[in-house]
């Protein structure tokens, strides 16, 4: 069987790259080789930027909003027509269960194009009539224009979904994009390039450059003077580096960064719903979700019961390969990331945590022992100022702490450098509204988790990000406003 090569996609065609440096893309299930990937050089990124800039003044720039929307609907339909290919690629790159990607990653990845294509057709701007000294008056109105070439740096945990969450609105607004997918998950960005071409998206509108961060495609893209804005999802320290790279041009950035999200469980909760929701928020996608829960605060009167039931739920999780219909958790993204998560498992033990369940590497069958498998883990007994409670781990783990009153838990839940999301479990509606309003986060769920209306704002405060995505908030980032004043 011939070796699979994933190339960069620039100006409507796959290109081998000028440097022809290759890196490996491995399956986290068993560490087997999926493909080799062409690493983009600085010259390759230059070519992608030049193609994206040309496309702005080509047929793409001349299209009406309706014409662009029609093409983006074709892209969404093209993804769904190749659903099984996208599903297999996403699960090979990430190791996640088919059951998860089938219901979330692929359909949401496709729908992002339709949602924003339709939204941009109906977005309103401002218009005001004013008086003038001569009495004739004037009218002021605003128009939205594409911002230009957008650099998209996308993560590995939800590769297609979070990439199109940025590419969809960027293209709907008339921009062109250069995508740098994570080096861990390059395949679906390449598949999407084929769909774009087949759907009739003009050359240069969608480009893909593969590689790493420092001294590679990521750095070349974020520091390039031909890129008009950068949108990034990933680690906070990487966001800070990107911000520095673009500071000399004072260009706009949109960041969705890390989190140390709390769940607050009151004694009057529906226990079944709270357990089910916390199970999902702590362990879904092997804990590799920016919105996931790593800190759980439970009212003392139900603490022991909650911990016992959460432990039973975690012990009942089945680890397995993506096409195992009975499996509900896959491996971590890589052996390197597993080493990081395991270092926190070791640190928790060193700090004296009570290991309720997990805390190590599971015993897998021989064919899977090379994979990045890890046990779902629950701790109790640590102080709020411990590393386990303050640093993002990004694995299938959580610490459960008791609390005594509402004021205490609000203070403790907010005592973090991050501010992305929070879930509150209570049957008291007044309390739910009151506590939600006090949380220093961008998104609060009450009696739910990961329930999203794509028209609403999404993003974090503090070190969890800059700006908001979703609905008109995405359009604000991907467009420039021009005020036009007409003297009557």
TrEMBL record:
PROSITE patterns noted in UniProt: ALDEHYDE_DEHYDR_CYS, ALDEHYDE_DEHYDR_GLU
UniProt keyword Membrane present: no
GO molecular function terms attached to this record: oxidoreductase activity, acting on the aldehyde or oxo group of donors, NAD or NADP as acceptor
Active-site residues, Swiss-Prot/TrEMBL: 256
Signal peptide boundaries: none
Transmembrane segments: none
InterPro entries (UniProt xref): Ald_DH/histidinol_DH, Ald_DH_C, Ald_DH_CS_CYS, Ald_DH_CS_GLU, Ald_DH_N, Aldehyde_DH_dom, OHmuconic_semiald_DH
Pfam families for the chain: Aldedh
Keyword RNA-binding assigned: no
Key words, A-Z: NAD, Oxidoreductase
SUPFAM superfamilies, per the entry: ALDH-like (SSF53720)
Domain Aldehyde dehydrogenase as annotated: residue spans: 16-483
Sequence similarity: Belongs to the aldehyde dehydrogenase family.
Name of the protein described by the UniProt record: 2-hydroxymuconic semialdehyde dehydrogenase
Species of origin: Sphingobium phenoxybenzoativorans
Gene this chain is encoded by: dmpC
């Amino acid at each position: 069987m011939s070796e699979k090569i994933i190339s960069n996609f620039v100006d409507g065609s796959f290109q081998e790259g000028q440097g022809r440096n290759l890196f490996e893309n491995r399956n986290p299930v068993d560490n087997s080789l999926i493909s080799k990937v062409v690493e983009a050089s600085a010259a390759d990124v230059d070519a992608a930027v030049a193609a994206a800039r040309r496309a702005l003044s080509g047929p793409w720039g001349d299209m009406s909003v309706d014409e662009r929307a029609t093409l983006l609907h074709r892209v969404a339909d093209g993804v769904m027509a190749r659903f099984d290919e996208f599903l297999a690629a996403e699960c090979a790159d990430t190791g996640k269960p088919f059951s998860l990607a089938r219901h979330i990653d692929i359909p949401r990845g496709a729908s992002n194009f339709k949602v924003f294509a339709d939204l941009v057709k109906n977005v309103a701007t401002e218009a005001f009539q004013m008086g003038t000294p001569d009495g004739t008056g004037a009218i002021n109105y605003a128009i939205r224009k594409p911002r230009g070439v957008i650099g998209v740096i996308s993560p590995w945990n939800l590769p297609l979904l979070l990439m199109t969450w940025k590419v969809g609105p960027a293209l709907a607004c008339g921009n062109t994009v250069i995508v740098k997918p994570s080096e861990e998950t390059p395949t679906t960005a390449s598949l999407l390039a084929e769909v774009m071409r087949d759907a009739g998206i003009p050359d240069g509108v969608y480009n893909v450059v593969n590689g790493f961060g420092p001294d590679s495609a990521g750095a070349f893209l974020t520091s390039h003077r031909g890129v008009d804005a950068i949108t990034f999802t990933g680690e906070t320290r990487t966001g800070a580096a990107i911000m520095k790279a673009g500071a000399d041009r004072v260009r706009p950035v949109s960041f969705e960064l890390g989190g140390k999200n709390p769940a607050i469980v009151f004694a009057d909760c529906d226990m079944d719903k709270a357990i089910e929701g916390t199970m999902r928020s702590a362990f879904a996608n092997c804990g590799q979700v920016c919105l996931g829960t790593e800190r759980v605060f439970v009212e003392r009167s139900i603490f022991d019961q909650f911990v016992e039931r959460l432990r039973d739920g975690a012990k009942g999780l089945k680890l397995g390969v993506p096409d195992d219909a009975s499996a509900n958790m896959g491996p971590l993204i890589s052996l390197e990331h597993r080493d990081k998560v395991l270092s926190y498992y070791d640190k928790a033990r060193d700090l004296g945590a009570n290991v309720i369940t997990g805390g190590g590497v599971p015993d897998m069958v021989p064919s899977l022992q090379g994979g990045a498998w890890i046990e779902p883990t629950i701790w109790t007994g640590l102080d709020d100022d411990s590393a386990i409670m303050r640093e993002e781990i990004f694995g299938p783990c959580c610490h459960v702490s008791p609390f005594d009153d509402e004021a205490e838990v609000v203070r403790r839940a907010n005592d973090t450098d991050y501010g992305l999301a929070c879930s509150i479990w209570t049957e008291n509606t007044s309390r739910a509204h009151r506590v939600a309003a006090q949380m220093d986060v961008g998104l609060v769920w009450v009696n739910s988790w990961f329930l999203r209306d794509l028209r609403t704002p999404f993003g974090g405060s503090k070190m969890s990000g800059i700006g908001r995505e979703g609905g008109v908030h995405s359009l604000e980032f991907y467009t420039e406003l021009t005020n036009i004043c007409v003297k009557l």
